[in-house]
Amino acid sequence: MTMADEVIVNKIYLVRGQKVMIDRDLAELYGVETKRLKEAVRRNASRFPPDFLFQLNKKELEHWRTQIASSNPQHKMGLRYAPFCFTEQGVTMLSCVLNSERAIEVNIRIIRVFIKMREMLSSHKDILVKLEQIEKKLFQHDMGMNKHQEDVQLIFQALKQLLNPPQEPRTRIGFRRPEEQD
User: Fold this and answer.
1) Is residue 31 domain-shared with residue 98, that is, in the same domain?
2) What pLDDT band is residue 77 in, cutting at 50, 70 and 90?
3) 53 and 82: one domain?
4) CA 24 → CA 51, 80, 122, 154, distances in Å?
5) What CATH number has the domain bearing residue 67?
6) Same structural domain, 106 and 26
7) Quick one: residue 171, left, alpha or beta (phi over 0 = left, psi -120 to 50 = alpha)?
8) pLDDT digits (tens, 9 = 90+) for 119-159
9) Considering the entire predicted model, what is its pTM?
10) Domain boundaries, position 92
11) Beta bridge partners of 21
């Protein structure tokens, strides 16, 4: 079974300031029912301390539903119950509980994605810190080169924008009902 890193990355969310994966996404990746995954976790509750696993509270669940618009109460689709949120360590522990070949294979893939994400974030921060250090040094040694200084400032602004692009709202895709059309 091969799966693109992008599939996993799209299933990692930021909740309570932590990168997590939710139970239904993990169940799908592992090829088990969400109900069975939750049962296995409950049977092994001592393996999942709060920094490995937490459950969304009612307020977070409502916010989640409005953000991803996944829950349709008429058709019982999407998140009906507060999902379990697994941190990277929780995902690792989950593979011990779901001791199947597929769970082990998928877990290895997920952990590698988490590591890549951490490395990318670290390298971006390092680059930004170095840029700021260079910028400070250059402007401390201002030798009357105002035109050059402005050019360098523009370069630094452009580089910082590349490292920290502004977050634009995503455009919704999918079917729209006639009453929702612009």
Assistant:
1) yes
2) very low
3) yes
4) 19, 11, 29, 46
5) 3.10.260
6) yes
7) beta
8) 777 666 667 677 777 766 666 655 555 555 666 667 767 76
9) 0.59
10) 5-119
11) 86
CB 96 within 8 A of CB 38: no
Amino acid code (one letter) for 43:
R
Distance of alpha carbon 148 from alpha carbon 155, whole angstroms = 11
Contacts 24+ apart (CB under 8 A), 17-20: 18/85, 18/87, 19/87, 19/88, 19/114, 19/117, 20/85, 20/86, 20/87, 20/90
Query: How many domains in the chain?
Result: 2
| Of the candidates 64, 115, 66, the residue with the CA atom closest to the CA atom of residue 89 | 115
Predicted confidence at residue 160, as pLDDT, reads 67
How does pLDDT run across 51-64, given as a tens digit for each residue?
999 998 888 888 77
Domain shared by 128 and 45, yes or no: no
